[in-house]
């Protein structure tokens, strides 16, 4: 594996499977009453969050702590970033503090890539602008494999605001590498210009895609990133691209429904569908900790056994 995790496009099939299999081993630890492993004792993980986040930040923090790393949480609000300090100066400060890994979320696509040229430790992309969110895609793949037993050959629909979604790009690249067939479903205005070069199919018709899908991954409509009118109204969007009870009924019996959160209940997904037993939304959050433990372990401590000595 490479030293940094910036894009799922950098992962080979073997890299990706190693992360998922390591996460599977680590999931056993999460079921114990004492969840902590000594694996990353003495290592420092810095969480550098320039953009709001609930689950991703908490999840990385829990993952690093369960591996006994020292964790430093840094959020742009209340730091010298609000006084205009640059990403580079912030990075050099972290470097001086001896960070072994920097987990970064930033509103600018490409920020983790730049950061990787300035620090000696590993950089983990926790979401950069509209570009990528690799650990989200890994936890999604992990969640699918746990529910359905495989990824190879599965038909996966990724539905909604693809244009603004880093989750969509990371998932398309990873799921393709792992042998799944992905179809993006969105109105033409919510697809990126270069989507034709992505390894997936495109459809504008959710009703045609649903009956053929094993997994339906709904994306949040990212109103905070919209600077123009991409669809006539929320109601109209929901009518054509929302997953409500009627559409859910058209899925085959084993199909599952996913969402990375946070959800706009009633817009891209109805509350009834989100809370159904075939929705993996809560599992995705729990699996996020395990998958991030696997990523931190493989980037920082890779040569020692993950669970050795703690049994
Ligand atoms: C996603 C994100 O921040 O990219 N959320 C997450 O990490 N769980 C998706 C979103 O914001 O819609």
UniProtKB/TrEMBL annotation:
GO terms for biological process: 'de novo' pyrimidine nucleobase biosynthetic process; 'de novo' UMP biosynthetic process; amino acid metabolic process. The keyword Transferase applies. Pfam families: OTCace, OTCace_N. Residues 3-145 form the Aspartate/ornithine carbamoyltransferase carbamoyl-P binding domain. L-aspartate binds at residues 83, 166, 220. It catalyses: carbamoyl phosphate + L-aspartate = N-carbamoyl-L-aspartate + phosphate + H(+). One of its GO terms (molecular function) is aspartate carbamoyltransferase activity. Gene3D superfamilies: Aspartate/ornithine carbamoyltransferase (3.40.50.1370). Pathway: Pyrimidine metabolism; UMP biosynthesis via de novo pathway; (S)-dihydroorotate from bicarbonate: step 2/3. Residues 152-299 form the Aspartate/ornithine carbamoyltransferase Asp/Orn-binding domain. InterPro entries: Asp/Orn_carbamoyltranf_P-bd (IPR006132), Asp/Orn_carbamoylTrfase (IPR006130), Asp/Orn_carbamoylTrfase_sf (IPR036901), Asp_carbamoyltransf (IPR002082), Asp_carbamoyltransf_Asp/Orn-bd (IPR006131). Its EC number is 2.1.3.2. Keywords: Pyrimidine biosynthesis, Transferase. Carbamoyl phosphate binds at residues 55-56, 105, 133, 136, 261-262. One of its GO terms (cellular component) is cytosol. NCBIfam families: asp_carb_tr, PRK00856.1. HAMAP family: Asp_carb_tr. Heterododecamer (2C3:3R2) of six catalytic PyrB chains organized as two trimers (C3), and six regulatory PyrI chains organized as three dimers (R2). Catalyzes the condensation of carbamoyl phosphate and aspartate to form carbamoyl aspartate and inorganic phosphate, the committed step in the de novo pyrimidine nucleotide biosynthesis pathway. Belongs to the aspartate/ornithine carbamoyltransferase superfamily. ATCase family. This is Aspartate carbamoyltransferase. It comes from Microbispora catharanthi. The gene is pyrB.
């Amino acid at each position: 594996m490479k030293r940094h995790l910036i894009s799922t496009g950098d992962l080979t099939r073997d890299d990706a499977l190693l992360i998922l299999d390591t996460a599977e081993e680590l999931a056993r630890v999460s079921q114990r009453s004492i969840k902590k492993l000594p694996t990353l004792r003495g290592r420092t993980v810095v969480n550098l969050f320039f953009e709001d986040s609930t689950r991703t930040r908490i999840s990385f923090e829990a993952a690093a702590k369960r591996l006994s790393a020292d964790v430093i949480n840094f959020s742009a609000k209340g730091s010298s970033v609000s006084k205009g300090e640059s990403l580079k100066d912030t990075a050099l400060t972290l470097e001086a503090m001896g960070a072994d890994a920097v987990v970064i979320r930033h509103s600018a696509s490409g920020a983790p890539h730049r950061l990787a040229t300035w620090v000696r430790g590993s950089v983990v992309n926790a979401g950069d602008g509209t570009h990528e969110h690799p650990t989200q895609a890994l936890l999604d793949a992990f969640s699918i494999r746990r529910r359905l037993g495989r990824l190879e050959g599965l038909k996966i629909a990724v539905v909604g605001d693809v244009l603004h979604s880093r989750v969509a790009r990371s998932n398309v690249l990873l799921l393709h590498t792992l042998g799944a067939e992905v179809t993006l479903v969105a109105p033409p205005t919510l697809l990126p210009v270069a989507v034709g070069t992505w390894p997936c199919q495109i459809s504008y018709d959710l009703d045609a895609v649903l009956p053929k899908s094993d997994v339906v991954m709904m994306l949040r409509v990212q109103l905070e990133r919209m600077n123009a009118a991409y669809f006539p109204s929320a109601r109209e969007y929901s009518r054509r691209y929302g997953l409500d009870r009627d559409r859910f009924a058209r899925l085959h019996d084993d199909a599952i429904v996913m969402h990375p959160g946070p959800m706009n209940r009633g817009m891209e997904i109805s509350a009834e569908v989100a809370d159904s037993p075939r929705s993996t939304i809560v599992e995705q959050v729990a699996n996020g900790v395990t998958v991030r433990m696997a990523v931190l372990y493989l980037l920082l401590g890779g040569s020692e056994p993950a669970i050795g000595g703690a049994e």
